[in-house]
Design goal:
With 51 residues, this protein is mainly α.
Length: 51
């Protein structure tokens, strides 16, 4: 009977890890998008100053 609870707990932990991993991937994607926007703004400002 203990094996049943251990197996259930293991599935629960695996689910939590998977959910966390998905959040990490989403946040990484969001950060990359934000960095891209900031890089574009820097290029535009640089062009305006040099223009």
């Amino acid at each position: 009977m203990i094996w049943f609870f251990e197996k259930d707990k293991r599935r629960e932990v695996e689910g939590e890890v998977e959910e966390l991993w998905m959040r990490v991937l989403q946040e990484s994607h969001n950060v990359k998008k934000r960095v891209g926007v900031v890089e574009e703004e820097v290029v535009v400002e640089k062009d305006m100053v040099e223009g």
